[in-house]
Amino acid sequence: MSKVTLIGGVSLTGVGGDNWSKMFSDPAVSASWKISAFYFVATVGIEMLLGVGIAILVHERLFGRNILVSILLMPMFVAPVIVGLLGRFLTDSSFGLYSWLLRLVGIDSNVLGSPRTALAAVVALDVWEWTPLIMLITLAGLSAVPQPLIEAASLDGAGYFKRLWYVVIPSISGVLLVALLIRAMDAIRFFDIIWITTNGGPADTTKIIPLRLYEIAFRFFDLGYAAAIGLTMLLFSIIVANLFVALLEKKKGAAQ
Amino acid sequence: MIARRSRFASVVLQILTVLVVLFTAVPLVWMALSSIKPTNDIMSHDPVFFFRPTLEHYRGLFTNGNHVDRYLVNSLVAAGVSSLIATALGALGGYGLSRSTMRGKRHLAFWIISTRMAPIAAVLLPLFLIFRRLGLLDSLSGLVVAYLTFNLPFAIWIMAAFFDSLPGSLEEAARVDGCSRWAAFWRISLPLTRAGLVTTWILCLVFSWNDYSFAQTFSGTSSQTLPIAATQLITQTGIDWGQLTAVGVIVVVPMVIAGLAVRRWLVTGLTLGAVTGE
Description:
The complex is a heterodimer.
Chain A: E1 2-5, E2 11-14, H1 18-25, H2 27-59, H3 65-73, H4 80-90, H5 97-104, H6 118-142, H7 147-155, H8 160-171, H9 173-189, H10 192-197, H11 209-218, H12 223-255
Helix pairs in contact in A: 1-12, 2-6, 2-9, 4-6, 6-9, 7-8, 9-12, 11-12
Chain B: H1 7-35, H2 39-42, H3 56-62, H4 68-99, H5 105-117, H6 120-134, H7 140-164, H8 168-176, H9 181-192, H10 194-209, H11 213-218, H12 226-232, E1 234-235, E2 238-239, H13 241-261, H14 263-270
Antiparallel strand pairs in B: 1-2
C-alpha cells in the first residue's frame, strides 16, 4: 500500500488504497486478468482431458508399457525456456518443421507472431509440457482400481465405455482432483514459456497477469502497484492450496 | 479388460499410441537432430532429414568467447547446492512434520506449502528488494537462496509424505531397544527413505536447473545459468539455431535421465504425497 521510490534506497510514502483502486480501474490490467483466466482454463482443461485420455490408452497396453511411459514423460523435465525456444524454432515461418507441416495442409502463417493464433500457440506449448504430469498421476490412479469391480460390471453386461464411465472414472475421481489441483497451482506459478516466446505480444494478446506484473515491477519500477497485483495473485493460489490441504486431510482421515 | 478386444479396436489403439508418441517426441528428436545438423540444412525452407552430422555447434559453444562452460558450472553449483541443502533440511523438517502431534500442525503444513505455491512473479519482487539490500544480486549464493524459497517447502512436504508411509512400529521397536530419538531417525527411518531422499533431491535439482525467472531477475554477468545462456544466443543479428539447439540438448538430456531414473517415486513426489505410485 505504499509508493516505493528506488532512487537512493527504498523509501516508502503512504498512498493508502491508491494502488488498489488503480488496479480495479486499469483496463490493461483487467485485460491481462481476462487473458490469464482464458489461458488457465484452456491449458488446465486441455491437459486434464488429454492426460486422462492418454493414461487410459497407455493403461490398455500390455506390452512395452514401461518404455512408452518413459517416452511420454520426457517433456515434463524440459526447462520451460527450452520449450518456448523450441516452439519458436518449430514454428519459424521460414524453416520451422511445424510451419512446414502447416503449409502442407494449406495454413501459411507465423502462428506465434499473429495476434489471432499466438495465444493458442502458447497454450499448445504448455499442453505439450504438462500433459504428461496429468497422465502420470492418472495412471497411478488407474492401476489402483480394484480388478473385481471391473469384472463385476463386465458380468452385468456393461460394455467398455460404460465400464469406463460408470466404474473406472468414479473410482479415480479423487486422484483426478489431486492432478487438477497440482496442475492448477503450477499453472499460475510459471510464466517462462510465454515470456520467451511472445513476451506478451503481439499487441498484448498473450500478456497474462504475471508478465504484466513483471513489467510493472521491473520495467516501470512501480513496485507498490506490482505488489498489489502480486497479492491478488497470491489470494488465488492460497485458495487452491487450501483445497489441496483439505483434500489431503480427508484422505488421511479415511486411511486411519 | 483386455481379453476380448476386436481387431478394429486394437488397430485404433495402435494408431492413437503412435500419434501420442509423435506429438511428444518430435520436438525433442528434432532438437537433437538440429544440434548436429550443418547450419545450411537447419535453415532450409523444406526440412532436411538426411545430412552429414557435425559437432560444430557444440564446439562453437565452448570456443569463440561463448564460454558455455562457465554457465554450465554456474548451473551445476546453483542447482546442485540448493537441492542438496533443500534435501538435507527437508528430511529434518519433513520428519518433524510427519511425526509431530502438536496442535496447529495443519496450519503449519499449510503455511509451508503455500510458500511453494506462491506465483513466481509475485515472489520475485520482494526477493529482489531483499537481495539488493543484502548484496545478494548477481551472486551464486543469492541464486541458491532464491531456489531454496521453492525447493525447501517442496522438500519438506515430500519427505513428510515418505516418512508418513513408513510403519511407525519400526521406530518404536528401536526406541524400546534403547535408541535415542535421533538414532532412531538417523539409523532406522532415514535409511528406509533412501528412495524418498533421492527423489526429493532430483526433483529439486530439476526445478532449480530449469529455472529461468529467478536467474533472469537476480543474476548478472558472473552468475548466469544455462537457461540464460540459451536466451542470450538470441541477438539482434539473428538466432544461431544450431548452437541454440545444442544448448537445449545440454540443458534437457541430464534432467530427462535424472527424472526417469526416479520414475517409480515420481507420482508420490510430484503430488506431494497425495497419490502413491503404481
